[in-house]
Amino acid sequence: MGSWEEPFLQGQLGEEEIQEKVGFGRRFWIESKNVWKIAGPIIVTAISQYSLNAITLTFAGLVGEIELAAVSVGNSVISGLAFGLMLGMGSALETLCGQAFGAGQIRMLGIYMQRSWIIVVTTATILLPIFIFAPPILKFFGESTDISEAAGKYSFYLIPQLYAYAFNFPIQKFLQAQRKVWVMLWVSVVVLLLHCIYCWLILFKLRWGLIGAAISLDFSMWLVVIGQFLYIVYTKSEGAWTGFSWLAFKDLFNFFKLSVASAIMLCLEFWYLMILVVIVGRLENPLVLVDAISICMNIQGWDMMIALGFNAAISVRVSNELGAGNAEAAKFAVVVVTITSLSIGVLAMVLVLATRDYFPTLFTHSEAVARETTRLAALLSLTVLLNSVQPVLSGVAIGAGWQSLIAYVNLACYYIVGLPLGILLGFTFHFGAMGVWGGMIGGICLQTVILIIIASIRNWHREASQAETRVKRWGGTAIADH
What is the mean pLDDT of residues 15-34? Predict the structure, then answer.
């Protein structure tokens, strides 16, 4: 590495000085290495943890159609609702931990994580009735009786997973902000391998059915939580973890406000395509359509894990650089990550189209479900392309602390434009599942365009100044004095 490259990586050179020393291509390469060091392990971690659900769904589909529908609805609707809310509440840490780390306030990270635990565990407890009373809730939204009852039985036994989410997401944001992403990778991969073994044992050998499927997921998620937390306690995370502290209860209200804004922003995104499964359940022949949509959402979910890796990477890069006062470095990181993620999205789109006649058979033995899934593959390919860009832009918003603004954008694009358009095309114009999905894709397109405009016109030097103010206001000085 040349003499100028190290300070560049640390954001210590001004933008004009950097441009004098290197061209765009060299800067792009250096920033890409920074991004992939974070994104690569996070992508593997996200895919591994998502695959816990996907593998369970695959085993359930091989058991029977009703099992496939029940696990799909339970994971995507009931557990998916909690997943979005838990991830959203925990994502406040991406802003706070990332900017505190960039500003050198290392001890703040452990306090932030404990504050997040208090808020997110409380939120999980509030969500309990959704898991307990899942059958009537699903029936109210038009899901068939058979699917509602089976999904409700499955969801009730997922309650331990709900609390695993509440601890896991703050832990992961804590580790991500410090770029300690390899420990997340190894824990997740080991748990995934174990999950494959006992999921096969429980569902195929012991034949515990839906209850066994839920228990396997509960156990795996808690293994992830315990493994990561033991690492934090053992290593002290280089001073970021100093044990439990009463300071975690300080300034909870302001922390809660940012957590709620983060939750609303991300939940409006996560719930959007989740609602697709519920709406399709109101069409004719719902079992086949729900199974087909579920398979597509499973594929889309795997692709989304790649995008979430870049979402986390750009959130870390933006929050760290803004916390350190390096506005231009943060802005350039946005350009690099967007181009990289879009390129991967194009490859994913081509892969879906090339395998549309084959991948459905991995999830079902039903010819009717496989045919419907193949028919929906074109919309799936467009969705994975859009989802290569949209999560990255959301990560920029989280890293910079724009959650409240983006929440309004998501509400308008998804639920005022996209969702009504999908219902209109699907039911009024009788385009069925393709109409519902196509209309909702319109909302994603609109939101992506608006996010690009917002990121382009923001004053990044002012964002860096606001990050410094946020770190000081939310306890940095107090921790140092303490």
Answer: 72
